[in-house]
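Task 17 of the worksheet. Students: predict the tertiary structure of the chain below and write it out as structure tokens. Keep your answer in the requested format; marks are given for formatting as well as content.
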Amino acid sequence: MNAVGIDVSKGKSTVAILRPQGIVVASPYDVPHTGSCLKELAAAIKKLRGETRVAMEATGNYYEPIARYLHEQGIFVSVVNPMLISDFGGNTLRRPKTDKKDAVKLALYAQTYWLDLKQYEPQQDLRKSLKMLNRQYQFAIKQQTMLNNNLISQLDLTFPGINKLFTSPAKPQNGHLKWVDFVMEFSHRDHVAKLTPSAFKKKYLHWCEKYGYHFSNSKADEIHAFAREAVSAVTVSDAICLIIKQAASMMNSALENAAALNLEMNRIAQMLPEYETVMGIYGVGEKIGPQLMAEIGDTRRFHSRRAITAYFGYDSENDDSGQHISKSNPITKKGNPALRRTLFIIMTVLIQNQPEDDPVYLFLNKKRLEGKHYFCYMTAAANKFLRIYYAKVNEVLNATPSG
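Model answer:
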């Protein structure tokens, strides 16, 4: 048997080929990530006598083009969790870290766990696109949070607390928030307070018609009264107004980006066979559903419910030694952090709405009434939700040809 270890990095891979009993077929050498070089690598692997298996680490996005190409060439490829390779013994106290030594280590790992290696299967293009969109969406949300905090901090100097007066949901077409659009026009409390109530009401009506928001006399009176009582730290000036308008404009751009990404995620998610099933689960909506589907992917790749909950990071580690026995076993959190975040959002929705006929909420509430810690009952309920999700989606996917 031939064990091929490929240490993938940006722009190149280091390859080592070993046989049992320490026979070196190929000492570590570099392979650039070009079409012709990868073609030569695949041809060299195919020429090896006997069964051949390739092992490589899951190194961000670098490994995927290489693993996919070799898989398409009919070569057995296994993508291994980097933590397993890191913990794999080298019978030495020293821990040298070079690409060549890592390639040899991967080849030795493939030899040692030959029968346990799981064959790599490329994700469907739809699922891969959905996951990439979700990661970009999460990045956009982080930017949105930063810009939101920045805008509010600037408004604390010019029009403190104005954002709390508006409760309208985001516009579905572009994600704009009413208070952000409002401060684009009224960036300082003087822009409202120095107007008479009737003058402001007329101007506010024109603004609502321009931006497509609902006008209310009582809301106009409330805003005007609030502005009269507000205390600003700076006087109104062109420079101050420019700062607020630029901050609001950047916030709107972030909202538009997030809305566009969410819309595209929904479009792609609807093409997957489990979409209706997922959307029918309580607590899952048009924003959370595609995120959940993106992070879990095809449930058929998990051999059991225990595997999918381990992917969530719910598996616990015992801490017993001698006479010491741990009273609690915390979860490892070695799974997907984006999935944990999405599941916690769903659990929060269940707590807010309290659906008495939902089994996940009933289980969560039972744990909460038992006096369990917040993270304990939230994580346990998320685990139950994930098991139900696995059963329902698997039933749909098993009735659907993979491809």
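Marker's comment: The chain is about 55% helix and 10% strand. The longest strand covers residues 23-32.
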